[in-house]
């Protein structure tokens, strides 16, 4: 592997500096979305010690929530003398984007809430394998339910003209133009803000203190007056909201939504959570960004087909599980969870 990387970077040099910058930018954007979804896995694992394999479908449902809002707003005409075909989406882009994110996060948060209440809470005292099977079943159920409700067709996300896909700020790298798209910059910055906000919520607020108490010892937390069921429900709501926000970002940036959308990002985000250290919020952030960058740069650096990026991602997962199962930043201990 080292020989191939050396051969590509210093001997053949098929890509210029501008192309490597494009790869890096793309990796950071997708990595931010992976990190947001990965935090959902980490939150639930920190509280319940289980992997919510339906989390990718929660993200997909949030994407649909934002999609239907932008479709509805693009169907509302607000004509002016200058533009008789103007729609609400283009006349008021900022409120439209906020409404899309609001719808996506609320729908995903409610999905997470009811998922815990229906599929996981009755099995809380069951052997650990049982909730895992329930999570896989919930994932398949949500995929098929969305397919039956909205059909299996791929749908295009409608962006306001001011943040249309493919436009942005051009910068010059080694004499070539590199485009930083508006949707990419917006998605990355929002991902960072949401991750920082969540970390502050968990570390500095009363809700976060209750979450850390339940993660450390549920029975003792209950004896101290903490409503364990309410804390677990809030955890699923928060993780669902983050996944929904990531889903709306995915729609605005990548432009497609369909019933199977959440499967691959969900598995990648789980890989990122394990890579950073499952149960560790900063680890999920670092793991998501690292995985996104490696996915984007890896095929070019190794001189292989870009369709093999998933092979690189899951090979990293296998190597981490073999040589450092605690992850890059280490799995949180009982005292450190969340």
List keywords for this structure.
338 residues, mainly alpha, two-stranded antiparallel ribbon, 4 strands, 70% helix, globular, disordered C terminus
Explain what the structure shows.
This protein has helices at 2-12, 17-48, 55-74, 88-91, 93-120, 129-150, 182-204, 206-216, 218-223, 228-254, 263-276, 281-302, 309-323; strands spanning 155-156, 168-173, 176-181, 256-257. It has 338 residues and is mainly α. Helix 3 (55-74) runs parallel beside helix 6 (129-150), helix 5 (93-120) packs across helix 10 (228-254) and helix 8 crosses helix 10. The protein is globular and about 65 Å long.
Mean pLDDT: 89
Number of helices: 13
Helix content percent band:
55-70%
What's the shape? globular
Helix-strand pattern: HHHHHHEEEHHHHEHHH
- Terminal Cα span: 36 Å
Trace the largest sheet across and list its strands. Answer: 1-4
Give the assembly state of these chains. single chain
* Helix and strand composition category: mainly alpha
Major beta sheet summary: 2 strands, antiparallel
In the predicted model, the low-confidence regions spanning at least 5 consecutive residues are 333-338
Number of strands: 4
Give me a quick take on this structure.
By secondary structure, this protein is mostly helical. The chain has helices spanning 2-12, 17-48, 55-74, 88-91, 93-120, 129-150, 182-204, 206-216, 218-223, 228-254, 263-276, 281-302, 309-323; strands at residues 155-156, 168-173, 176-181, 256-257. α12 (281-302) packs across α13 (309-323).
């Amino acid at each position: 592997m080292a020989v191939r990387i050396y051969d590509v970077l210093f001997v053949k040099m098929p890509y210029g500096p501008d192309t490597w910058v494009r790869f890096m930018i793309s990796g950071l954007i997708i990595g931010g979305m992976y990190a947001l979804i990965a935090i959902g896995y980490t939150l639930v694992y920190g509280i319940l010690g289980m992997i919510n394999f339906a989390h990718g479908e929660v993200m997909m449902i949030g994407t649909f929530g934002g999609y239907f809002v932008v479709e509805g707003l693009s169907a509302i005409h607000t004509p002016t003398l200058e533009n008789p075909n103007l729609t609400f989406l283009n006349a008021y882009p900022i409120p439209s984007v906020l409404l899309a994110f609001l719808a996506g996060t609320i729908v995903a948060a409610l999905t997470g809430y009811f998922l815990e209440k229906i599929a996981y809470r009755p099995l809380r005292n069951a052997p650990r394998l049982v909730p895992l099977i329930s999570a896989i079943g919930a994932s398949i159920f949500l995929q098929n339910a969305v397919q039956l409700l909205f059909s299996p067709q791929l749908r295009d996300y409608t962006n306001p003209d001011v943040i249309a896909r493919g436009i942005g700020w051009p910068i010059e790298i080694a004499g070539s133009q590199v485009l930083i798209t508006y949707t990419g910059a917006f998605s990355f910055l929002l991902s960072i803000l949401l991750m920082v906000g969540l970390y502050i919520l968990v570390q500095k607020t009363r809700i976060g203190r209750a979450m850390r108490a339940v993660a450390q010892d549920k029975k003792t937390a209950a004896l101290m007056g903490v409503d364990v069921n309410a804390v677990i429900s809030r955890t699923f709501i928060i993780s669902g909201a983050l996944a929904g926000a990531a889903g709306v970002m995915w729609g605005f940036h990548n432009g497609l939504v369909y019933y199977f959308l959440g499967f691959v990002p969900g598995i990648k985000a789980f890989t990122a959570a394990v890579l950073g250290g499952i149960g560790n919020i900063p680890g999920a952030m670092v793991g998501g960004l690292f995985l996104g960058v490696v996915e984007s740069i890896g095929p070019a650096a190794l001189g292989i087909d870009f369709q093999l990026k998933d092979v690189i991602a899951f090979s990293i997962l296998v190597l981490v599980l073999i040589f450092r199962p605690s992850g890059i930043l280490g799995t949180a201990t009982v005292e450190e969870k969340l």
